[in-house]
Amino acid sequence: MVGDGFSETKETKRPLLGMTLEELQQVVCANGMPGFSARQIASWLYVKRVDTIDEMTNLSMRHRTALKEAFVVGKEAPVDAMRSADGTVKYLFRAGGQHYVEAVYIPEEDRATLCVSSQVGCRMGCRFCMTGKQGFSANLTANQIINQIVSLPEFDKLTNVVMMGMGEPLDNLDEVLKALQILTASYGFAWSPKRITLSTVGVRRNLQRFIDESDCHLAVSLHSPIPSQRRELMPAERAYSITEIVELLHAYDFSRQRRLSFEYIVFKGVNDSVVYAKELLKLLRGLDCRVNLIRFHAIPGVGLQGTDEESMTAFRDYLTSHGLFTTIRASRGEDIFAACGMLSTAKQEAINKN
């Protein structure tokens, strides 16, 4: 269902969805409403997940009318979806104007995860990433981030959220932190931070702030333990050295509730030999962490291939036998546009042709 959302005809009205309790308190104060109305509105937005202000029936008619003059709920359903035979669903959400972002719903036996986007495109330019090939267009607002979650048809089945979709979350930290606060605060979704993971290439200027201001899990995109090679795969290495990132992480305790992991896409003949496993062990020595090995989803125009199952298993076993807990992430949605950014790219190309 599409609520009174962020459609182009209502751009002048601000969305309430995505506002923190403090921001809602400012709204009710400015509209002459009692202070407790802020929590009532938050409950309608994040617990009951209403589509319109008219549904907020414990607010007086006068106050609802006043709100509607300047605000909308700001919910908008996905505009497209692609369904995989394994149950994975990739949803396309409009993000203002002619921009689109993706969220991927991944059901498993004992959990259901939503991969959420934080930007339209991305500045990081990773060689293996379709979103990076789009370039950067815009930061998502907290409204647009939260909307991917509350407007998900499978919302009631969700157990986990990962900020691993389009964009670099730490390049849009203010809006991401607002969204994370709403997900974990008592006035919002009241989720445990252990249900949420943020993935980053390691934007150092904001990495420390994220660790200090959030209790959510952290996943660092590594992909090569050798800086010169990582720089070829991930140009952000020039600005955000993996050795400096690891040095920063050593200052924090990840042995308790919070989990630190490193994501490692395994490319055939590039980073899949024992040489790289040994360098990984040296780089991560002393960190309480795990490594997630990821199969590569091929994307157009990129001369990289995923490694074979035997090499990936041998890589995992070598790391594990030397004390570094390592898993192979199950590959999902291979029969749809599996690589992040492919569905939105196709949509944008279609628009440009018309």
Q: Report the mean per-residue pLDDT as an integer.
A: 92
> For the CA atoms, what is the radius of gyration?
21 Å
List unreliable stretches of 5+ residues. Answer: 6-10
The counted number of beta strands is: 14
Shape: elongated
Order of helices and strands: EHHHEEEEEEHEHEHEHEHHEHEHEH
Distance between the termini: 27 Å
Instruction: Provide the β-strand percentage band.
Output: 15-25%
**Helix-strand makeup class:** alpha/beta
Strand order within the widest beta sheet: 3-4-5-6-9-10-11-12-13-14
CATH architecture label name of the largest domain: Alpha-Beta Barrel
Counting H and I runs of at least 4 residues, what is the number of helices? 12
Helix content: 25-40%
Tally of distinct domains: 2
